[in-house]
Design a protein that fits this description.
Elements: H1 3-13, E1 21-23, H2 29-40, E2 61-65, E3 84-90, E4 99-105, H3 106-113, E5 121-125, E6 130-134, E7 139-144, H4 147-151, E8 156-159
Antiparallel strand pairs: 1-4, 2-7, 2-8, 3-4, 3-5, 5-6, 6-7
């Protein structure tokens, strides 16, 4: 089973309805990824891979370190619970070149993240106003309008 199928299976097992979390169709995700990249990612060349976005973020960002690797538990303190967002998940092992695109509410996404370990993910405003990402080092980074909310959590701050 690929990572996308595993995520959807967990969502259904948890009883999360498709209206609160679902995958984005194969014909829609390329344009969404392009918009995310144009707003938040520095593309130095055509070899910048989707799965290395966190290493190529625009410099206007704020990062917090979560030594317990539990930044996902705080997402609902940053994102409005009724807002649907893009959720981009990178496979934890196997084909790390793939990112899977979903849309859902933060509470649903938190439930799903809690069932998996050590994978990188991005949450993006559907209006492309902000991006949050947690890398495999337990660092939560925010860009755009989400930075002030991220700072209000204040574990260990890192300016980037």
């Amino acid at each position: 089973m690929d990572f996308k199928s595993a995520i959807l299976a967990v969502a259904r097992k948890l009883g999360i309805p498709a209206g609160h979390f679902d995958s984005v169709g194969i014909y829609d995700w390329p344009e969404i990824f392009k918009k995310i990249e144009s707003r938040f990612i520095i593309r130095e060349n055509t070899n910048t891979r989707f799965n290395w976005w966190w290493e190529n973020l625009r410099k206007d960002s704020i990062s917090l370190s979560f030594p317990q690797d539990d930044a996902w538990r705080h997402l609902n303190n940053i994102i409005d619970k009724n807002e649907k967002v893009w959720f981009v998940a990178g496979a934890p092992k196997g084909d790390r070149a793939k990112l899977w695109l979903f849309e859902g509410t933060v509470e649903s996404i938190q439930q799903i993240i809690g069932q998996f370990h050590h994978f990188e993910y991005y949450l993006v405003s559907k209006k492309y106003e902000w991006l949050l990402t947690e890398d495999h080092h337990g660092v939560l980074t925010g860009l755009g309008t989400v930075k002030d909310k991220l700072l209000s959590l204040s574990p260990v701050k890192e300016d980037i």
